């Protein structure tokens, strides 16, 4: 399989999720900011883990989750991200390659352990994430496989990469390589606090370097510091080719120049854990886009994948997304 | 908390489960024996893992699962088993101590990694287990905390320990220590193939050293090489104080000298993964026994815990068993 035939190359943090149930009192006692992602150091991660309930380990990482879901849809994906040569790194590598995904970055050997994200899932299925980036923070421009990026239809980047200078440079290099080859660049804004940290950079990126933008309501409102979703939507509509704006149970809104598509959310039997809903949405959307479906169909494919993700603990798909999407969209 | 007040001390293999979905064709292609536990070496574990689909990691181990469920019931438990000082060992330690369980054995430092069990769950919710014992095989009599065992109401041993000579000696030491202190010894037969490997030893144990025996239909039939469950039941009824014989959807049968209690299975909404059903049953039964409930109530408590275990992936409880049992039994 030549590198030039990937549908999507994802670039992001390589993370193993450590997921536990928690009640609201526990979130408060631990001083956590509900529903967001916070970066923590190794020491804080160890302290928090000590105070966390029994957990389950599942491979995660935002862009990695998207590529995993893309593979479950039948897409051809590759992933670039750094793990360590430890047991958690072996788990991450296994889980992504077992899906037929090419895992491109060399593992770090510097002794920094593989990154992990402590996820506290409250009874309302909301997730509160505390991330120790570990080895994934060691991503540099040298890790960007230019042939793979230049050959892929879409290069998909997570906003979280912007939290580290070297990863930011890797991000820039990947975006330039993709565009120089006439390919598409997609970005997920990741988290409203991540947008807060990098607002000016993200605005410039969206205006000049991003073809397909994924953001939820909080993120797009934060990006433009607007007071309403509609006002933020008016700002973004001429900044990139496609903006796919997700609104949880209200579905998603796709804007592309003068076109606006409002698409309902897919039905879900029971919302168990919202971890990875946005990542899965991006996978469905991008997969349909590479198959040249219209934008409303891309949004429905995204919604179907998001509905699967929130029906169970963990972000990675537990059912064949190809089957689910074929059943509903044909 | 003095060591003398544990309800149950569990002794067994300290294992992290690696759980993946698999279809029947995959089980056949890999040459696995459906529904049983097979011991494998490190090399085979690595080969099988390479061929396994994306997985989820959850702490496991038969007796450890039982003690985890006992803690969820509100019981006071301790666990003796060996992990390594690696990342999987840290996960096992975290998950058991986060439940308030005392974890008594010192970790091994010899370089043997923490044991793991590759579990393939087929669409019928049956599990096929391939276990690399790793550090858990290094349990020796020196790891048996005599004060804890002598002080606990019940010492609970898994039959799997019998697969290694040093662990077998640890088992014997624990049983003797418990009996010398006037305490109860409980045993789970673990697996029909484990019974095949050690039939004569297990018969002698049941006759002379075990007060409370847990076995499923296949195991008790294998122990006595009988052709029917009823014939095996007649054999075991005078060999130990209590035999709790589980029969999956047919519930369980408790025999104690002349008394026989036939107890229905508890209702389950959807059977997802039968891993740990027997371990959870033993927890419910032993917890009720330490609370001096009658045998039929002990069996119902066991059934309630087993029903919770088979409703989700993984063996460890995801809901508060104390609440479930109180709701149904008062």
What percent of residues of chain A are in strands?
A: 15-25%
**Tally of extended strands of chain A?**
14
What is the assembly state of the chains in this entry?
A: homodimer
* Percent helix range of chain A: 25-40%
CA-atom Rg of chain A in angstroms: 18 Å
Q: Which CATH C-level class of chain A is it? A: Alpha Beta
SSE ordering of chain A: EEHEHEHEHEEEHEHEHHEHHEEEHHH
Q: What structural category characterises the helix and strand content of chain A?
A: alpha/beta
**Going by CATH, what is the homologous superfamily of chain A?**
Ribokinase
Whole-number total of structural domains of chain A:
1
Low-confidence stretches of chain A: none
CATH T-level fold name of chain A: UDP-N-acetylmuramoyl-L-alanine:D-glutamate ligase
Termini separation of chain A = 27 Å
Largest interface: A-B, 25 and 25 residues
Summarize the structure in words.
The structure is a homodimer of 330-residue chains. By secondary structure, chain A is an alpha/beta fold. Chain A has one domain: 3-Layer(aba) Sandwich (UDP-N-acetylmuramoyl-L-alanine:D-glutamate ligase). Chain A contains 13 helices and 14 strands. The first copy, chain A, has helices at residues 24-29, 42-51, 62-72, 87-97, 146-151, 165-180, 192-197, 199-208, 217-224, 229-236, 277-290, 295-309, 321-329, and strands at 8-11, 15-21, 37-39, 56-59, 77-80, 102-103, 115-121, 127-132, 154-158, 184-188, 212-216, 242-246, 252-256, 259-263. Chain A has a 9-stranded mixed sheet with strand order 6-5-1-9-10-11-12-13-14. The first copy, chain A, has a 5-stranded mixed sheet with strand order 3-8-7-2-4, sandwiched between helices. In chain A, α11 packs antiparallel against α12. Chain A is globular and about 50 Å long. The first copy, chain A, starts with 7 loop residues before the first strand and ends with a helix. The mean pLDDT of chain A is 94. Chains A and B meet through β4 and α4 of A and β4 and α4 of B.
């Amino acid at each position: 399989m030549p590198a030039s035939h990937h549908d999507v190359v994802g670039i992001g943090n390589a993370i193993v999720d450590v997921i536990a149930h928690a009640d609201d009192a526990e979130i408060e006692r631990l001083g956590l900011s509900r529903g967001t992602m916070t970066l923590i150091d190794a020491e804080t991660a160890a302290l928090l883990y000590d105070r966390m309930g029994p957990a389950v380990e599942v491979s995660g990482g935002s862009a990695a989750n998207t590529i995993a879901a893309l593979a479950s849809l039948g897409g051809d994906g590759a992933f670039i991200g750094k793990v360590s040569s430890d047991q958690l790194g072996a788990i991450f590598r296994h889980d992504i390659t077992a899906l037929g995904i090419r895992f491109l970055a060399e593992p770090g050997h510097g002794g920094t352990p593989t990154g992990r994200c402590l996820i506290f899932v409250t009874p309302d299925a909301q997730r509160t994430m505390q991330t120790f980036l570990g080895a994934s923070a060691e991503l540099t421009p040298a890790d960007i496989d230019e042939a793979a990026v230049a050959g892929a239809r879409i290069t998909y980047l997570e906003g979280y990469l912007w939290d580290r200078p070297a990863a930011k440079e890797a991000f820039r290099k990947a975006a330039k390589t993709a565009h120089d080859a006439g390919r598409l660049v997609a970005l997920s804004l990741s988290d409203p606090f991540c947008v807060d940290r990098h607002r000016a950079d993200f605005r410039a990126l969206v205006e000049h370097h991003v073809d397909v933008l994924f953001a939820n309501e909080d993120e797009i409102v934060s990006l433009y510091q607007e007071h309403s979703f509609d006002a933020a939507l008016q700002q973004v509509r001429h900044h990139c080719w496609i903006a796919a704006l997700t609104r949880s149970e209200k579905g998603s809104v796709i804007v592309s120049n003068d076109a606006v598509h409002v698409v309902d959310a897919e039905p879900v039997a029971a919302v168990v854990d919202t971890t990875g809903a946005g990542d899965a949405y991006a996978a469905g959307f991008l997969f349909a886009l590479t198959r040249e479906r219209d934008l409303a169909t891309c949004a429905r494919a995204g919604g179907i994948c998001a509905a699967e993700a929130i029906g169970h603990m963990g972000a990675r798909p537990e059912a064949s997304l190809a089957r689910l999407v074929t059943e509903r969209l044909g």
